[in-house]
Design goal:
Elements: H1 7-27, E1 39-51, E2 55-66, H2 69-89, E3 97-109, E4 117-131, H3 137-147, E5 151-158, H4 163-187, E6 191-208, H5 212-215, E7 230-244
Antiparallel strand pairs: 1-7, 2-4, 2-5, 3-4, 6-7
Helix pairs in contact: 2-3
Length: about 240
């Protein structure tokens, strides 16, 4: 029986052509993407919440000078021990007392056309403290100075547990953002469909002065008058809404 020698070659060509056709079809297939009629609206909103602060932070310490470094440091230590005793006697807990710096530096005399000369040494010891009874802050300040502190900086006021205050500001900011989104949607003849995303930033504003009638309760006879004002915390939100017909 005779076989056609061209038949296997024709079959191979047909198969190759079929593969090429299938590949071309696969490459020309374009995926369909579902369209959306939603409109995205990004709204930024800010809100504040204020409280009378319940913690005061300040730094205090002693600066002494002497002819040599040893004497300056010894005098500083003796005086600083009295200040530390006064801090503890005022009811400040150990956890609220932190040494923030100890230094000793030469003091120079400068003369024209002459190299500087050392005239003595200055020693410094500073601690940071937190006063949790603000009503006694004036008394604490007076006790510090009476015990030998010749360096006092502050106070700065803060809210000890601020999360509840931040939450109040967050709720107000979110409500403001929702009201603004409703306004935009109504103007466009649309409705707010859903919230797509919320991102948050934080903020802080310095204490605001209180009225003197409120501050008077913190004054004490024979002590430094102190007015803590109000501490304001700020919440900043960026909210993305989806609007629909």
């Amino acid at each position: 029986m005779l076989r056609n020698p061209l038949r296997p070659l024709a079959l191979a060509s047909a198969l190759a052509l079929s593969c090429l056709t299938m590949t071309a079809c696969a490459q020309n297939t374009t995926p369909t993407v579902a369209s959306s009629d939603g409109t995205l609206l990004s709204v930024s909103a800010q809100a504040e919440a204020s409280r009378v602060p319940d913690v005061a932070s300040l730094s205090t310490g002693v600066v002494t000078q002497a002819a040599d470094a040893n004497a300056a440091l010894s005098a500083n230590a003796a005086q600083m021990n009295k200040v530390m005793a006064a801090i503890k006697a005022a009811g400040i807990a150990e956890k609220d007392i932190q040494t923030s710096g100890i230094s000793i530096n030469p003091q120079y005399k400068y003369t024209d056309n002459q190299p500087p000369t050392i005239t003595g040494y200055q020693a410094s010891n500073t601690v940071s403290i937190k006063v949790r009874e603000i009503g006694k802050l004036g008394e604490v300040l007076d006790a510090l100075v009476a015990s030998g502190a010749n360096q006092v900086n502050g106070p700065s006021f803060e809210i000890d547990q601020p999360e509840a205050v931040y939450d109040e500001a967050r709720r107000a900011a979110l409500e403001k953002a929702q009201q603004r989104a409703q306004m935009y949607a109504k103007s466009l003849g649309m409705k707010v469909q859903r919230i797509v995303s919320i991102s948050e930033g934080g903020g802080f504003q310095p204490p605001r002065p209180m009225m003197m009638a409120k501050a008077a309760s913190f004054d004490r006879a024979q002590s430094s008058p102190v007015s803590p004002g109000e501490t304001t915390l700020t919440a900043n939100l960026d909210v993305v809404f989806e609007l629909a017909r």
